[in-house]
Write a sequence for this structure.
């Protein structure tokens, strides 16, 4: 174990030997901090460039201007203004020098000496002409001033006339435009057309007034109709809210019915295919008929009567399902499992009806097999009566020795009732007259015998128990 640890230590030392100079460096932590700061600055710069790269690209051409000190802006502005002023002065001086150069030929005075030494007469004439020219100039100046004053007056009159002309021309143009707008032509027939136009406008005005009255009446009718429609709409909204509440209530009742049906296992009876094609009235009629039949069937059961009474609430139709479920459970609890192999009461009733019809048919067949002729029955009954009479005679022989008190002996007398003897005579001698009773497939022999007894004794009103006894 120590060897393994030593081996691991040697391998660790071998890995540290190439970095021994770094471990010996005392400034390594400072360098790491410096590099970390530079890395943070670089990341910050990268984020800044990524965020403002487009703006920096636009500012790059004027970076030299942006590098200047903002405090020197006023000085630069003054220098720029001074440079512009110097440029303007230089341009003016250059223009003046160009003018002087162009007029240099006029500054030559080489002929001035000859003029001074010229003829004095010529100078006198020139002086006279100069005076004359000055006088003419003064007259012309006065005339010019008079003409200028007159011209200014004429100009004022012209301006006023021109303004009046422009105003009247503008008014005339407006009048022409109005005439064109209303379709009037200024000619000889304009007055006649104006009268016709006036009559037409009066007619249109009367038509418009009548139309306005009609529209006002229509508007009043529409407002009344709108009020009626608004009331109908409000009524429909109320009806819709009520129907919506009824639908919500019906849905809630249906959900409750579905839960009740699923909990009690009668969902198969509710989702019958033939019920899906019946209308609401047909389903309601079927439900009412079923309730009417069940009302008589549950008359002796207090619990089912209470459930039936609760289910008659028209606002809670789901309680009818509760009543049907209660009847269903009541019938399910009373199914004879030793006879019927099912848990469904409806199927049990159907099977019982099938079994009842089968047993009835079997009983009929057995009665037909066991049936005998009426004469044989009469003979059998007579033999039975004779046998019983013999037994009673033997009993009387034993009772002759019985005495008590003032009674010396006891004797039993046997008499056949007249109705029974008549029945026996008919069975033995007149059976052909009543053969329709015994040949009928709808009546068993016992029922035919009871019918015969009733036919022979119509005055006797006997019930089922009495008829059974006589059979």
């Amino acid at each position: 174990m120590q060897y393994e640890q030593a081996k691991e230590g040697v391998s660790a030392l071998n890995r540290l030997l190439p970095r021994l100079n770094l471990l010996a460096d005392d400034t390594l932590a400072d360098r790491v901090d410096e590099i970390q700061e530079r890395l943070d600055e670089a990341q910050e710069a990268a984020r800044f460039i990524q965020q403002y790269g487009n703006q920096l690209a636009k500012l790059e051409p004027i970076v030299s201007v942006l590098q200047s000190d903002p405090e020197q802006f006023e000085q630069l502005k003054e220098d720029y203004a001074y440079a512009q002023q110097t440029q303007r002065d230089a341009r003016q001086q250059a223009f003046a020098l160009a003018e002087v150069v162009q007029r240099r030929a006029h500054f030559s005075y080489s002929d001035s000496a000859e003029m001074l030494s010229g003829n004095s007469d010529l100078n006198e004439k020139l002086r006279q002409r100069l005076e004359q020219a000055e006088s003419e100039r003064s007259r012309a100046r006065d005339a010019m001033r008079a003409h200028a004053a007159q011209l200014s007056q004429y100009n004022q009159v012209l301006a006023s006339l021109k303004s009046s002309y422009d105003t009247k021309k503008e008014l005339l143009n407006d009048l022409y435009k109005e005439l064109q707008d209303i379709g009037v032509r200024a000619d000889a027939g304009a007055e006649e057309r104006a009268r016709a136009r006036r009559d037409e406008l009066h007619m249109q005005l009367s038509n418009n007034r009548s139309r306005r009255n009609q529209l006002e009446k229509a508007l009043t009718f529409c407002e009344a109709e709108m009020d009626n429609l608004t009331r109908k709409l409000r009524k429909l909204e109320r009806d819709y809210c009520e129907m919506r509440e009824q639908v919500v209530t019906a849905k809630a009742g249906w959900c409750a019915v579905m839960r009740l049906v699923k909990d009690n296992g009668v969902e198969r009876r509710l989702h019958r295919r033939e019920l899906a094609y019946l209308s609401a009235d047909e389903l309601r009629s079927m439900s009412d008929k079923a309730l009417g039949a069940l009302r008589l069937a549950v008359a002796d059961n207090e619990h089912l009567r209470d459930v039936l009474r609760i289910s008659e609430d028209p606002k809670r139709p789901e309680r009818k399902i509760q009543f049907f479920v209660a009847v269903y459970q009541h019938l399910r609890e009373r199914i004879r499992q030793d006879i019927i192999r099912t848990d469904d009461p409806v199927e049990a009733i159907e099977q019982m009806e099938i079994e009842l019809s089968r047993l009835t048919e079997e009983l009929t067949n057995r009665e037909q097999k066991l049936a005998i002729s009426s004469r044989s029955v009469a003979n059998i009954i007579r033999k039975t009566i004779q046998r019983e009479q013999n037994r009673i005679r033997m009993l009387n022989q034993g009772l002759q020795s019985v005495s008590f008190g003032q009674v010396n002996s006891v004797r039993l007398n046997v008499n056949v009732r007249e109705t029974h003897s008549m029945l026996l005579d008919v069975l033995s001698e007149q059976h052909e007259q009543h053969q329709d009773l015994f040949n009928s497939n709808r009546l068993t022999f016992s029922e035919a015998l009871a019918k015969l007894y009733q036919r022979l004794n119509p005055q006797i009103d006997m019930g089922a128990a009495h008829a059974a006894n006589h059979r």
